[in-house]
């Protein structure tokens, strides 16, 4: 079984040899009180029990006890293995799981942002804004999990000054990139600009709306924030083999007419523009990347 647990949804499927996924289903995490209850429901619906699993979780995987970052779910790896997956259980960060799929992507599965070709060998990074803000790195073929979304946003961005000040006033702390580059961040930015406590749009509607001036400004700020975050991460990792963006927020935000603006923000630097110009940036079209990463791991046994 391959399962990806984000901050909001869980996607599950089964595979025999890692070549394809069957019995794919999606569940809302808020509908379950435990991860075991969710697996019981899934096995009941597919009318089979699977004894080996690969699970990606929106949480740091450090010890046996796993606690999700953006919801109340927690579980013990050893206890879960002994109870439900006696033939083997692999638990890893959800972006770490997704990053295993990068190597196998074809040109048809990505949209290149800018005309840069992948010429210089170096690391790669995968960035995915969603319920939280996920980041994983790839060095050679080794995938490295991070919690880089929790870096504080630099306070010297004039475009963001009012927004950052409001966040500090409301939350009594400086904002991280995850605070604003996420589902909750879209809501916070919209409400800060609109001055209303009630939002009549979903996050997807805010990013897609081209008529409402508050939606348009929210979208521009998110686009700018994502570009500068990608820039900082690319420089830190030396990502000369590529910055990859994934997930529904990135795919809703980055439309063809916005790619040049994004690339301009990404390359904007008084000292490192020449390096940034040779770094490829790509949008991954598939919003279910975790399953592909899981299949690659499953095929390796």
TrEMBL record:
It holds the Pfam family Glucokinase. The chain crosses the membrane at residues 221-245. GO terms for molecular function: ATP binding; D-glucose binding; glucokinase activity. Keywords: Kinase, Membrane, Transferase, Transmembrane, Transmembrane helix. GO terms for biological process: glycolytic process. GO terms for cellular component: cytosol. Signal peptide: none annotated. SUPFAM superfamilies: Actin-like ATPase domain (SSF53067). This is Glucokinase.
């Amino acid at each position: 079984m391959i399962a990806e647990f984000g901050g909001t949804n869980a996607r599950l499927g089964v595979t025999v040899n890692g070549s394809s996924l069957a019995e794919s289903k999606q569940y809302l995490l808020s509908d379950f009180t435990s991860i075991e209850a969710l697996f019981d429901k899934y096995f009941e619906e597919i009318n089979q029990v699977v004894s080996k699993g690969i699970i990606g979780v929106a949480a740091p995987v450090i010890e046996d006890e796993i606690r999700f970052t953006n919801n109340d779910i927690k579980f013990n790896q050893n206890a879960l293995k002994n109870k439900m997956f006696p033939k083997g259980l692999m638990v890893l960060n959800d972006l770490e799981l997704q990053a295993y799929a990068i190597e196998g992507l074809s040109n048809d599965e990505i949209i290149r942002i800018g005309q840069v070709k992948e010429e210089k060998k170096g690391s790669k990074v995968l960035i995915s804004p969603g319920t939280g803000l996920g980041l994983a790195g790839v060095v050679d073929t080794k995938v490295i999990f991070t919690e880089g979304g929790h870096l504080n946003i630099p306070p010297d961005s004039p475009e963001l000054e009012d927004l950052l000040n409001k966040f500090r006033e409301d939350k009594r702390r400086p904002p991280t990139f995850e605070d604003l580059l996420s589902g909750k961040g879209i809501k916070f930015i919209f409400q800060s600009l609109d001055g209303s406590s009630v939002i009549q749009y979903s996050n997807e509607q805010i990013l897609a709306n081209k008529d409402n001036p508050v939606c348009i400004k929210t979208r521009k700020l998110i686009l700018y924030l994502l570009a500068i975050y990608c820039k900082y991460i690319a420089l830190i990792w030396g990502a000369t083999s590529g910055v990859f963006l994934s997930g529904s927020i990135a795919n809703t935000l980055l439309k063809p007419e916005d790619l040049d603006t994004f690339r301009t923000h990404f390359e904007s630097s008084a000292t490192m523009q020449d390096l940034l110009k040779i770094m490829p940036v790509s949008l991954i079209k598939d919003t279910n990347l975790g399953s592909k990463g899981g299949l690659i791991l499953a095929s390796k046994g």
